[in-house]
């Protein structure tokens, strides 16, 4: 008999490897996903995220490792026998069937009694707010509506695990943002556990409660969106998620409660010790919105550097400044448009001073 999992390990991926011939597409990946959680696999093209999703669906088998869902080892189970449903980017709707019949398709194929098919389809139409579109064909719907039909069809069979492959890839930016919220609300209201794949970091951060950043078949970091953004553990993750300034230097002071890192343009004062050695090469990451600008240098400020404005991009809520530093490096600074400098906003060619607090920095040793 299978053992019941704790809620924190409803889906358990244990040391999963996938080789295609000599090529390792997924490399020793382990993960626990909690019941009801929305988890995102995030990474650029070719990192192995779809291969991992396809192994969860049963379209590929792991070369080694185990996938356990709700206490059941999925090894050897073909896709149609898994309590898993996958929604594809292309939606894969049947063009000749109505919305109603598209949603009913899998239920009828499974031989569910007519009354139950009707009840489930109606429930799904209500859930996805497609009630008035039941008689339409897919081509008579907008992209966002088609996407909801695909979701309704995926949820109709009440899977234990819902897999989303680039769920909003076919929608334009504005519709994507709106649909992200709708999709999460529907998934949450059903309570189904969900693993999604995306290369779009905003999508992963908005929709998922936790995510894994993948590169070359491996998980580089797993955590909540804020953890990954605020405390990336590698240079790759810091650079991949959001905008960042990465400054390379070496450790010049390392004490239990403070440290200094010498970089070409500035000495970084860090408010804690670092596990390293004097002279060790490290990278300091500072997000552009954590940097403040002044017209004159602040007295006794640490982490302060002079720059010349050489690009200004206005984004409505904030303005992104590119400062040229003495070494020739660029420092990106985001200033909220509400928070204007007393003497007016800097323009191209202005001299400014950038400063940030010791806690605004993350020291990366890899
Ligand atoms: P994308 O976002 O472009 O879909 P991905 O991160 O999902 O990328 P995968 O589709 O998982 O990447 O592919 C990971 C790697 O494995 C790629 O280098 C790909 O070429 C390779 N790969 C995938 N499927 C096969 C296959 N059937 N045979 C050989 N190599 C494969």
TrEMBL record:
Belongs to the ABC transporter superfamily. Spermidine/putrescine importer (TC 3.A.1.11.1) family. It comes from Sphaerotilus mobilis. GO terms for cellular component: ATP-binding cassette (ABC) transporter complex. The keyword ATP-binding applies. It comes from the Bacteria. InterPro entries: AAA+_ATPase, ABC_SmlMolc_Importer, ABC_transporter-like_ATP-bd, ABC_transporter-like_CS, Mo/tungstate-bd_C_term_dom, NA-bd_OB-fold, P-loop_NTPase, PotA-like. NCBIfam families: potA. The complex is composed of two ATP-binding proteins (PotA), two transmembrane proteins (PotB and PotC) and a solute-binding protein (PotD). GO terms for biological process: putrescine transport. This is Spermidine/putrescine import ATP-binding protein PotA. Part of the ABC transporter complex PotABCD involved in spermidine/putrescine import. Responsible for energy coupling to the transport system. Keywords: ATP-binding, Cell inner membrane, Cell membrane, Membrane, Nucleotide-binding, Translocase, Transport. Pfam families: ABC_tran, TOBE_2. Residues 11-241 form the ABC transporter domain. Its EC number is 7.6.2.11. The keyword Transport applies. It catalyses: ATP + H2O + polyamine-[polyamine-binding protein]Side 1 = ADP + phosphate + polyamineSide 2 + [polyamine-binding protein]Side 1. One of its GO terms (molecular function) is ABC-type polyamine transporter activity.
